[in-house]
Amino acid sequence: MASTIRPRAWMKNDVANVKALISHPMETGMRKDKATGNKIPAHFIQDLIITHKGEEVLHGYLGPAVSKNPFLNFKFKGAAKGDKLTISWSDNKGNSDSLEVSIS
Amino acid sequence: MHNPNRRTLLKGTLSAGIAAIAAGAGLLTPHTVLAAAWPKAAFDAKGLDKATSALLGSSSASESKDIKVKTPSIAENGAVVNVAVSTSLPNVDSISILVEQNGSPLAASFDLNSRTEPYIKTRVKVAKTSGIVAMVRSGGKLYTARREVKVTLGGCGG
Lengths: 104, 158
What we know:
Oligomer: heterodimer
Radius of gyration of chain B: 20 Å
Structural class of chain A: mainly beta
CATH class of the largest domain in chain B: Mainly Beta
CATH topology of the domain at 5-25 and 46-62 and 70-102 in chain A: Immunoglobulin-like
Shape of chain A: elongated
CATH architecture of the largest domain in chain B: Sandwich
């Protein structure tokens, strides 16, 4: 199954730049289904974690106000070309996904 | 002879060690990692001060010119508004993004490691013309900056 995570990670001088686009509906729970008139239940990523060499370099706590298909860009030091990063997320319904990416 | 306390200590240390190794190898999903729990009260809080208090323990923050909140001044589509927060403040371990006029203002909060640059870019939903507020924790203290985004409702600017 294809990953929901589309990452880009690259070194610029001594800083690792990371961009990730994650496929996820990020439903707030306030939208109504036009056909039935019922509210579409909240369904959103809660935790977005990026680890490098066993450390969490970023732990994002997201709420439903993050836009659909969450986008993230951040930077960190202490990495080198070829290092592996793990990007993981879990949502309020117990779904999750994880992807390893090499820093180019 | 058999000291139950020593056995419990060793068991605890071993399982924490395994968790750390497994987490490093990406074998654990975020829910099972020994990290802080998702701050439900902060995300449910109505009102900027309540959300900040629930999340960071205090709502009093000093305005700082050293925090840059970059957003468009007019957003055509309130569902997808770019927000980039950066700062030159030192020892930043937390950056949070709040949308003043949203029913629940807290949009996202990021815990930063000591190696992470104090910069976050993401996209948030803005219900109506609103201030976007960044809360930055630097050296244990809270600092804030704000930038207004006008949201158009599919028509001309207004």
